[in-house]
User: Fold Asp/Glu racemase from Paraburkholderia largidicola.
Amino acid sequence: MATIVVVHTGPVTVQPLKDQFAAQLPDVRMINIVDDSLLNDVRSAGHLTPEVTGRLYSYMSNAQAMGADFILNACSSVGEAVDTLRGMIRTPIIKIDETMAQEASRLGTRIGVVATVKTTLEPTVRLIRKKAVEAGREISVVERVAEEAFAALLAGDAERHDEVLRHTIVALADEVDVVVLAQVSMARLVPSLGQTRVPVLSSPQSGVATVKAALSDAH
Assistant:
């Protein structure tokens, strides 16, 4: 049985990824490592810090010691740390949003990105731009930070959070060729959006599909 270790920076990404593993890779052993101080520290600093990268290294080193076939990084805010850690950890590391970013740059030249916090938006935008350059495509990015949604979530008002995000996503879809949801936790909103004018991409499904393809290639 293959073992996949998923490294989370908060609890909100655990269940969406458990659901995707159950749907796409029911026969693998999924191990979750959660440290909810990581994302808080990134938000407090306003960017990824060496200390956060160091803690991620320790978790991914532990994942390697657990015999992981692959490590899945579940948080876009710390995705750039993976670029450093890939040279330090023998176990292959997959970013949850890498395939989504490739798909976005393939689908259009005007790409909308939605997040509720800038610390997630900015690395997601940089990743999309990087994938576009690798594909030889010229793109423009339209950014939306739904700060009101994040404030509602902090206040315990999940209904208001969802309402603000839905409005932001649908409005942005009228301006761009494709919309990217920068946070794993947003994926559950997709079924409630109805028929949007353009594709709306979220990372849990494509991220786990990438793990599935990597496992298939390895065997």
About this structure: The mean pLDDT is 94. The chain has two domains: 3-96+205-218, 98-203. The CA atoms of residues 61 and 89 lie 6 Å apart.
